Every structure is written in structure tokens, then in C-alpha cells.
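Write out this protein's structure.
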Amino acid sequence: MSVDAVVRRLTPDAALIAARTIAEIKHGFEHDVVEREAERLRNWLEDRSNVFFAALEGDRPVGFALGYLLDRIDGKAPMLFFYEIEVLPERRRQGIGTSLVEAMKSIARAERVAKMWVQTDPENAAARARYEQAGGARGKLPEEIYTWTPEAFSTLECP
């Protein structure tokens, strides 16, 4: 990893950093709403099941990883859904992604999760290599994902 980049888990007091990270890396919203989004993210970060790591070079975000701790209905150990990872294109292949994966694994260890999983495009060789090098095992069965848009459920009444 670049000696200048530091990976840290963001807490509610770092909500402005989270908002800037999303705005700058993911272009999730425009810079003029960063402060408003920071308040929303402060509330989101208060929930310990929401996991957000930022890779920072000084004040500059260069990557992030996002995950969700999921409690199981049977009361057994929770699971960690490693939802997303992004690194600025000009900072890829410098170890930042690997450090973000390791940071997410540290949460899995600390929370004693039953498993952590991530989904990736089968064509994304770089991501697959990163996950395998970090100890991830490719699933044995191909799975399909179904998604529903609001149009698919907007006409239903909640029971």
C-alpha cells in the first residue's frame, strides 16, 4: 500500500469524511450537498452494523469499503456482507484495495462472524485475484441474483 494512505473505520464524528469520500470517489452526490449528506451519514454510521472504511492520503480520500453486519434469526454468529469497494483509478494496483479487504476482515474477526462474503463480476479478474489472495474462497455453486425496482413492488400493500 502507498505509504501515504491510511485506512480507518469511520465513526459518526467522521461523517463529513464519509460524505466527501462518496462524493469524490463514487460521485454519489454533488459537492454542494456534502454537508447535508454528512448529517444523514452521521446517523447511518451510528448503527454499528454499518461498516465504512476510508483510505485517506492526508485529507484526500483514495478508496473506501462498505459492509453490513447481519444478525441471524437463529441467534448464531452474525455474518458480514462486504458490499462494495472502490479505489480511485490512478491509485489502483498499489495495495489500497488489499488494505481495505484486510480492514473488512478485521471487523469479521472482531465480531466473530460465521462468514464474510462479497459478490463480484466473474469478468473482474483483478477483484477476484484480490479476494483470493486475501483468503476468500470462490463459491462452489453459481448463484443468480434477482432484483426488484420500486415499480415491481409499488402497487403492493404491506400486510
